[in-house]
Design a protein that fits this description.
Layout (H helix, E strand, L loop, with lengths): L16 E3 L8 E8 L7 H17 L4 E3 L16 E2 L2 E2 L1 H13 L6 H13 L2 E10 L2 E9 L5 E6 L7 H4 L10 E4 L2 E5 L8 H9 L4 E3 L9 H12 L2 E4 L3 E3 L23 E4 L2 E4 L5 E6 L4 E8 L1 H9 L29 H11 L1
Helix pairs in contact: 1-3
Length: 351
């Protein structure tokens, strides 16, 4: 694939688009997945990079652009945050402080900036971020429309392995599917995509363009993406970062635990594998393991109907009298308050 190494800002494309064909009917949506690295510990620079990527994607005609998991805020690959059973180191706590400082508030100024970008380039935007809510962090996906409006978010409901040390757990209130002019859009993050009941909830909401921001670059990930496309009768857009060791701070500021001694600045630490798959299971674009890239395809939305004719997992292929799912989609809070002032007013009005 043709890629432009070491892109220079404002001097031509960041990198060449990987393009696959499609028809030009009114039911066709031009979608792009971004495969690029965070500027780690530098959220303003990452936002600048995001805008350059959006501008590039828009120049290729993209109507929908999907970014990787944790693109804003960063995926802390290789870090242990100084955690072992029964102990946390001072260095690890400081590392978490810096990571917390790189996260963003939702809503907040960075969300406003992302919304403005979506409006400026007239694209629907799906962006992976690290969300800061007080002192707890969440791995989150934000959704924006092409008019520059923030639509809402999905918080990862089950972080994987050591992610559970640094990220909180989402609840059922943030599993949205948005009905937009380019299709019904939702997202599940990384290994959430291996949770059958979560997928079923999204299918029941009518998802048509299933976004799967991830940090999993293994070839076996492609099997999950193909299965979801077939199971859900939907387009699957998986976006992952492509990162080299030099995209992270150098040691000792940042250390890849257990592998640092084997890495050079050019060592690939996340190989990407971003891909777009049709409801029939056909790979439309990717997977790309070559470097940073924009990966695009034209999505014929009519293919969703054709796929559902064969298999509609929550329609004619369901057996609700045998198998059913209950989704608790209300917000869950650890603390709730009963207002004494409201009680006083009620008592006063009744006397």
């Amino acid at each position: 694939m043709a890629l432009v190494p070491n892109p220079v800002v404002n001097e031509g494309p960041l990198f060449a688009e990987v393009e696959m064909g499609g028809d030009s009917s009114s039911s066709t949506v031009r979608a792009t997945v971004v495969q690029a690295s965070t500027v780690f510990y530098d959220t303003p620079a990452t936002l600048d990079k995001a805008e350059r990527l959006l501008a590039e994607a828009a120049s290729y005609g993209a109507q929908l652009v999907v970014f990787p998991e944790a693109f804003i805020g960063g995926y802390p690959r290789g870090s242990t945050f100084g955690v072992s059973i029964g102990n946390r180191t001072d260095k690890g706590k400081e590392e978490f402080r810096k990571y917390h400082a790189s996260a963003i508030d939702v809503p907040g100024p960075e969300v406003d900036l992302l919304a403005a970008m979506a409006g400026k380039y007239k694209v629907y935007l799906v962006m992976g971020v690290i969300e800061r809510d007080g002192y707890t962090l969440y791995c989150t996906v934000l959704f924006f429309d092409s008019q520059g409006h923030y639509l809402g978010k999905h918080r990862k409901i089950m972080p994987t392995a050591l992610e559970r040390i640094i990220w909180g757990f989402g609840d059922g209130s943030t599993i949205p599917v948005y009905d937009t002019p380019v299709g019904k859009i939702g997202a599940a993050i990384c290994w959430e995509n291996r949770m059958p009941l979560l997928r079923t909830a999204m299918y029941a909401k009518g998802i048509e363009i299933y976004c799967a921001p991830t940090a999993d670059a293994r070839e076996v990930w492609q099997a999950s993406m193909t299965h979801i496309a077939l199971e859900g009768g939907c387009f699957v857009l998986s976006a992952n970062q492509f990162c080299r060791r030099k995209d992270y701070p150098p040691p000792p500021e940042y250390v890849f635990s257990g592998t640092e001694e084997d890495l050079t600045p050019d060592s690939v630490v996340c190989a990407g594998g971003s891909v777009i798959i049709s409801p029939s299971g056909a790979v439309l674009a990717g997977p790309n393991y070559d470097g940073e890239a924009l990966i695009s395809a034209d999505l014929d939305l009519g293919e969703i109907v054709r796929a559902k004719f064969d298999f509609d997992v929550v329609g004619h292929y369901a057996r609700p009298e045998i198998l059913s799912l209950i989704v608790k989609d209300h917000p869950v809070s650890p603390v709730s308050f009963t207002s004494t002032s409201s009680t006083s007013k009620t008592e006063s009005s009744s006397t």
